[in-house]
């Protein structure tokens, strides 16, 4: 089971306030712990939404609409994420509870969401085989 720990943005992260060196080191230790346990798939911080682009689909069949950031409502934005693969929802919660306060000033918030697997979306065997082949191709490319 894959889970994404979504670090919610704050006004500070949206204005570009960088984390303290102590927080950077605490997050590095946490990510190292995840890696040693063999559950870490990815972990990254994101630039503020002022550097972002939003692509929306206002009407079915119409051309996508591009909107440059910044976007409002910092509490609805994402400042970073950690993607893990674990055996259960409970294990994902345990790992999420161990993450340092992601902003270091209090007020940090993490949203934990399970990632859909292909089998959750379709039972079509041809589609599942194509998806599995794509994942294998991605793994081969990473190794080369």
From TrEMBL:
Source organism superkingdom: Bacteria
Gene3D superfamilies reported for this sequence: Dimeric alpha+beta barrel (3.30.70.1060)
Domain YCII-related: 1-117
Family under the similarity heading: Belongs to the YciI family.
Protein name: YciI family protein
Organism expressing this protein natively: Paenibacillus sp. SYP-B3998
């Amino acid at each position: 089971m894959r889970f994404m720990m979504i670090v919610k943005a704050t006004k500070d992260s949206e204005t570009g306030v960088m984390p303290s060196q102590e927080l950077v080191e605490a997050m590095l230790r946490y990510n190292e712990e995840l890696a040693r346990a063999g559950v870490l798939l990815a972990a990254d911080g994101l630039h503020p939404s002022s550097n972002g682009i939003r692509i929306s689909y206002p009407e079915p069949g119409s051309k996508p609409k591009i909107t440059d950031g910044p976007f409002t409502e910092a509490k609805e934005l994402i400042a970073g994420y950690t993607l893990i693969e674990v055996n259960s929802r409970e294990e994902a919660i345990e790992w999420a509870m161990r993450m340092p306060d992601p902003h270091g000033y209090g007020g940090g918030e993490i949203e934990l969401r399970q990632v859909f697997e292909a089998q959750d979306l379709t039972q079509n065997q041809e589609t599942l085989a194509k998806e599995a082949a794509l994942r294998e191709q991605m793994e081969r490319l990473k190794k080369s």
